[in-house]
Amino acid sequence: MPKLIDPACAPQDHLARQRVALVRPGAIERAAGIFRAMGDGPRLRLLTLLGQGEACVTEIATAEGEDLSTISQRLRVLRNEGLVSRRRNGKHILYGLADQHVADLVFNALAHASEGRADLSRFPTLITNKE
Amino acid sequence: MPKLIDPACAPQDHLARQRVALVRPGAIERAAGIFRAMGDGPRLRLLTLLGQGEACVTEIATAEGEDLSTISQRLRVLRNEGLVSRRRNGKHILYGLADQHVADLVFNALAHASEGRADLSRFPTLITNKE
DNA sequence: ATAACACTTGAACAGTTGCTCAAGTGTTCC
DNA sequence: GGAACACTTGAGCAACTGTTCAAGTGTTAT
User: Fold this and answer.
1) CB-nearest partner of B63 from A20, A109, A111
2) Separation of CA A92 and C1' C24 in angstroms?
3) CA contacts within 13 A on the Cβ side of A118
4) E strand or H helix that includes residue A17
């Protein structure tokens, strides 16, 4: 066998020389913060729930069978990352998804998570409302 | 002021009755796992780097100025969530993004993170290679 | 076979996070 | 005004996470 000059990695080490830099420094950190906020089961559940429409904290707490404070704390994390909207309506404070980006992120992740099986071409059908 | 029956939250409490259930139980947990893996600056950097093409561990470690072991550990987390591909080529092991879903997720998050300013309609331009 | 290279892995320790509880804020109702 | 309602917030503690280090695995070169 002839002696080859290790074609494995070396030819591609352009990465080592061309220092990769993001256009907007800090964008990665912000994006990571967003993912971190979404990277928790209960919190992600909350987002999918809000994807169905606005809801107040009490309503959510009842639906999830959790303490009011717990839900509020979860919403705080999501709020700090700008993932949810918030508006007062009388006594209640209604929460919702901040924008379409958030809905898209959740959708894509669920798509990837469910990969291999089933048809999840339509977002709404990902959720089942059972009476 | 007339006495109204608190139009605030009650009318929408369909959420409290119609128990929300995901089609595929566990999909949310899996998706949360994916987000959790992406929810770390250094790890997300790694993904954007791999978005540029395959690379071996040594190459990445050099580019990031980190220890080989550190990079390997980060890759392990990403691998456990199925976010990266891995193949051996001679002495080296080349890592890459697992699929388009992952690239999309990273793109959407960066888009949301950079919201308000700039045009990031084109993904490749999000990254700048400076000599 | 032995040595060198390119990773991988488990353990340990520090830093971070999430839930609970108790106290505090802002509205609405009376 | 005061009471009740609907949250919010800070502190405390247990559980989890990331990095480092040291030892282990698999591949290539000699």
Assistant:
1) A20
2) 18
3) 16
4) helix A14-17
Pick from A24, A33, A44: which is nearest to B32 by CB? A44
Contacts of A101 in chain B (CB under 8 A): 108, 111-112, 115
Q: Between vectors from CA A102 to CA A100 and to CA A105, what angle results, nearest 5°?
A: 110
Over the Cα atoms of chain B, what is R_g? 21
Least reliable range by pLDDT among A115-129, B12-26, B88-102: A115-129
**Whole-angstrom distance, CA of residue B20 vs CA of residue B108:** 26
Using CA of residue A119, residue B86, residue B62, residue B76, what is the dihedral sign?
Answer: positive
- Quick one: pLDDT at residue A72? 97
Cα–Cα distance measured from residue B73 to residue B102, given in angstroms and rounded to the nearest whole number: 19
Nearest chain B Cα distance for residue A124, angstroms: 11
pLDDT digits (tens, 9 = 90+) for A43-83: 999 999 999 999 999 999 999 999 999 999 999 999 999 99
Nearest to A8 among B16, B34, B91 (CB): B91
List chain B residues with CB under 8 Å of A7.
Answer: 89-90
CA A34 to chain B, closest CA, distance in angstroms equals 7
Q: How far is CA A60 from CA A2, A55, A80, B83, in A?
A: 68, 7, 19, 32
- Cβ of A43 less than 7 A from strand C: yes
Burial per residue of A104-130, b for 16 or more beta-carbon CB atoms within 10 angstroms, e otherwise: bbbbbbbbbbbeeeeebeeeeebeeee
